[in-house]
């Protein structure tokens, strides 16, 4: 009957792998991730399976941490996108939940199945797929979002999970199998009951963090929309004022022309035209980006600096909400930085152009002396008020949402934010 035990071990090892792959974030595309996982993990699983067959669960249970857990953790750490608390919590979570199922089915088979391994095999055959279905149905999507959006607080949860894994492994196997220590079985059962309750507490706390993050994101979006609407209102008021002042402009131009001052009249007319275009937001053919540029053009003027623009987009269909979010958060970051340096040093520019299937956005501004940022590291805002510190993070997340990426760095006294977003399909649809 040991065939049922051996099959249940092989089944368990493969499903531990599946459960972890459902929850972690790889740094590579899916195809490459599966290929690397198959190359590394298949021999490791087979080696441990033969170990269980040759030496039994008593021996392998004591060395399983060294023969399987640590080597697999090292491999997945290398291919994982996350390297700190998020990775270790996810890895320990998958291993601990799987170890919980293995321990429960082992105890039930010993006391209820007569140690014939049939109950163990059936239990694992049902519980692992059920666990994976629950993970896909209820956990995977919010958990992936949580890993993406919440950067802090994972370390303590990873530590708790690692302690639970060690506690289960020790209680189940040392100094001998728990089924051979009936006097310790009540304590072991209490640990098995306590573990799901602890995980429920952890996920409840994490979910509250996710809801808080979503609320902050929504508040930020509402603030952006409010700023854009206020910008349009201000422009309308300036346009009405300009129309009211048109009589004065006509009188002035008439006076200059009657006096024969043609050059002065032309210069005066050009200033009026530039002011009118600025108020109307004539920066590019994209109506939505115009609103953002118009708002920050006025804000930069208030700082005594000009916002230089090189916008090479037309009227083609673009993901305007996401692009406006990227540009507005990038320019808000530039505006905050320029406030900290002398007016004579203030410079800011935006460049938007195409590079194959990508739309490339570069926002550049002068920064305070001594301020340095390494490539790829997003600096935190030093403001204490609520709602600050999310701008560059929002840029990064929005770029990833569009199939691109964002990074920033300092160079020659300037802070540079580069964003690449994939827009090939959108352009093709617009062209067709």
Report on the structure:
This protein is an alpha+beta fold and 432 residues long. The protein has two domains: 2-180, no CATH class; 283-431, Heat Shock Protein 90, CATH 3.30.565.10. The protein contains eleven helices and five strands, in the order ααααααααβαββαββα. Strands 1-2-3-5-4 form a five-stranded mixed β-sheet, with helices on one face. A hairpin with a 2-residue loop joins strand 2 and strand 3 (358-366).
Side-by-side strand order of the widest sheet = 1-2-3-5-4
**Main β-sheet, in a few words?**
5 strands, mixed
Order of helices and strands: HHHHHHHHEHEEHEEH
In DSSP terms (H or I, runs of 4 or more residues), the helix count works out at 11
Broad structural category: alpha+beta
Helical fraction equals 55-70%
Taken from the alpha-carbon principal axes, the silhouette is: elongated
Radius of gyration: 31 Å
Distance between the termini: 65 Å
Which ranges are low-confidence, i.e. pLDDT below 50, for 5 or more consecutive residues?
384-389, 425-432
Could you give the count of β-strands? Answer: 5
Share of β-strand residues: 5-15%
Total discrete domains? 2
Look at the structure and give the mean pLDDT.
Answer: 82
Summarize it.
The protein is α+β, with helices and mostly antiparallel strands. It folds into 2 domains: 2-180, no CATH class; 283-431, 2-Layer Sandwich (Heat Shock Protein 90).
């Amino acid at each position: 009957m040991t065939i049922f035990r051996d099959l249940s071990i092989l089944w368990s090892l493969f499903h531990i792998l599946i459960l972890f792959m459902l929850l972690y974030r790889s740094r590579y595309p899916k195809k490459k991730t599966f290929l690397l996982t198959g190359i590394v993990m298949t021999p490791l699983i087979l080696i441990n399976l033969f170990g269980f067959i040759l030496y039994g669960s008593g021996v392998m249970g004591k060395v399983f941490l060294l023969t399987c857990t640590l080597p697999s953790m090292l491999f997945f750490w290398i291919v994982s996108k996350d390297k700190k608390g998020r990775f270790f919590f996810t890895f320990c979570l998958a291993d601990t939940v799987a170890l919980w199922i293995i321990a429960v089915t082992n105890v039930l088979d010993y006391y209820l199945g007569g140690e014939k391994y049939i109950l163990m095999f059936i239990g694992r055959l049902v519980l692992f797929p059920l666990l994976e279905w629950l993970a896909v149905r209820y956990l995977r999507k919010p958990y992936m979002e949580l890993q993406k959006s919440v950067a802090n607080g994972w370390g303590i949860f990873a530590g708790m999970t690692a302690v639970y894994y060690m506690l289960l492994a020790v209680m189940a196997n040392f100094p001998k199998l728990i089924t051979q220590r009936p006097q310790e079985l009540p304590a072991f059962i209490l640990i098995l009951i306590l573990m799901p309750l602890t995980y429920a507490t952890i996920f409840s706390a994490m979910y509250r963090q996710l809801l808080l993050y979503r609320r902050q994101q929504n508040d930020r979006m509402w603030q952006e929309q409010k700023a854009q609407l206020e910008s349009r209102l201000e422009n309308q008021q300036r346009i009405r004022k300009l129309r009211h002042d048109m009589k004065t402009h006509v009188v002035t131009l008439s006076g200059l022309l009657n006096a024969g001052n043609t050059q002065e009249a032309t210069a005066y007319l050009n200033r009026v035209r530039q002011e009118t275009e600025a108020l109307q937001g004539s920066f590019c053919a994209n109506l939505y980006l115009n609103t953002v540029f118009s708002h920050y053009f006025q804000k930069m003027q208030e700082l005594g600096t000009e916002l230089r623009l090189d916008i090479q987009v037309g009227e083609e269909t673009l993901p305007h909400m996401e692009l406006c979010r990227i540009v507005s958060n990038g320019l808000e970051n530039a505006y905050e930085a320029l406030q900290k340096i002398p007016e004579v040093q203030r410079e800011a520019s935006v460049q938007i152009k195409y590079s194959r299937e990508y739309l490339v956005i570069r926002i550049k501004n002068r920064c305070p002396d001594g301020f340095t940022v390494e490539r790829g590291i997003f600096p935190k805002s030093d403001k204490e008020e609520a709602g600050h510190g999310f701008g560059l993070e929002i840029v990064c997340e929005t770029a990833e949402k569009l199939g691109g990426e964002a990074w920033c760095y300092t160079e020659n006294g300037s802070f540079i934010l580069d964003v690449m977003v994939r827009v090939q399909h959108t352009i093709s649809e617009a062209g067709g």
